[in-house]
Amino acid sequence: MSRRLHTTDLGCIACDALTDIGAGKEGWLVDNPDLLISLDTHSVALVNRSLILILHWSSSNNGGPDPDKNRVVKIRPDLSPIESEYISAVEWLVFDDEVSRVLAVGTSRGYLLIYSLHGKLIHKQIVNTGKILKLRVRGTKRDLTEDASSEEVCVVMPGVIARFEGSDIQNMLQRWFQGTDSQFWNDSFDKMDSDDSGFSFTRLPYQLWNVSKYGPCSDAAITGVMPPPLMETQSSQHYYCAVTIGDDAVISAFRLSEDKSRSLVGAILSKVVPATFSTIASLSKLIWRSEQKPTKKPEAKAQPFARASPLTCLKDHPRKGEKLTLSPNGTLAAITDSLGRILLLDTQALVVVRLWKGYRDANCLFVEMLVNKDTAASRSAYHGYSKSDYCLCLAIHAPRKGIVEVWQMRTGPRLLTIPCPRGSKILQPTYRFNSAMTTSSSYIPLEVFFLNGDSGQISNLNGTLN
């Protein structure tokens, strides 16, 4: 009865297409390590190595499944069978206009793929050689507390972090969606993938850092912009703080610089080698006068690393960092480890400010709740709820206990405990790109959703504590 009071049923994704990714077996949603899920408003993407399933659902009075069979989209990416390539990460990319809503996919060979809602390949690009572990979409919107907005897509790989500007992705998508001849864009992207000399306008710029000083990471996140080192000359370039977790180091932090010139020798080589190679290639063409295209596809070249300076490291063998969850503004991070503990990290001071024990296999998501309902209601009778009416909390799903707990941040009490059926997952819609200033009347709080694997039912946690 408690769950009925604190959650609201929204819809159901149960359909025959789910059998293609293993549905029908007990625990199929939580026991399969290859099954990836990404939630968006009225859409959910489920991935099982080589198959992408996009299900569109809508709220209904009875919470039943949507009868429209055309709302199910299947995508089978063109993966390399020789190297056993598979899909290793997935995330929605959502912009202001609902039209620009696409699905980003990472592969085990380090490729970033972007698909439309109808399954068309919009973009394909190599990030770095290696498996993409996670795609993180994050942004800080400009409001009364933030002078500027920062939006990004972070690609996490073992010991490597890449950062794409949200505006660059949005501009590329706008050109693709607004183009009068979409086939031209598709041909351009396909040609770029088959010809390494390719087209510069189809390659998204990004920044790349090596953060493997303390061993390969299992998860990581860029928490925000940080000041430059004290003894370093001030410049217009940005510095970012990155937090990584892994087997060798539970927590480690790095200062990421935009500067790629790691040394004088590296700077000289980066200028001389490409020019020398270009000259040799030109002379070769003049000598051989060959117009034939190479029969073998040239290997994609990875981007050079920028500077990553270590800041701190926490090693506590045999403890291993497993999962990392970032708060909306990036100032807090919830980290689960192999000993069943949850660490709350202050990403600015780089200190652990809170610790929970006895939560093995836990999943954490930050959520915003209306704690003082009466006070907030009196202030928002005409203007709606504002960000100040909500309080930041941490939702902890303990599957072994079969419950979800909600704790007030940073050191507040446990506000709520509700049962969670076996075989369920807690999910959160992806960040919505929006550079416009957020007004108090249009503020949308951070929510947590439940997906029941046995019934396919989707529900959300009510944002008000009774």
From TrEMBL:
Q: Which InterPro entries match?
A: Rab3GAP2 (IPR026059), RAB3GAP_N (IPR032839), WD40_repeat_dom_sf (IPR036322)
Q: Which Pfam families match?
A: RAB3GAP2_N
Q: Which domain of life is it from?
A: Eukaryota
Residues covered by the Rab3-GAP regulatory subunit N-terminal domain: 28-427
Q: Which SUPFAM superfamilies match?
A: WD40 repeat-like
By its UniProt entry, which PANTHER family does this protein fall under?
Answer: RAB3 GTPASE-ACTIVATING PROTEIN NON-CATALYTIC SUBUNIT, RAB3-GAP REGULATORY DOMAIN
State the protein's name. Answer: Rab3-GAP regulatory subunit N-terminal domain-containing protein
**Organism for this UniProt entry:** Forsythia ovata
Q: Mind giving the lineage of the organism this protein is from?
A: Eukaryota, Viridiplantae, Streptophyta, Embryophyta, Tracheophyta
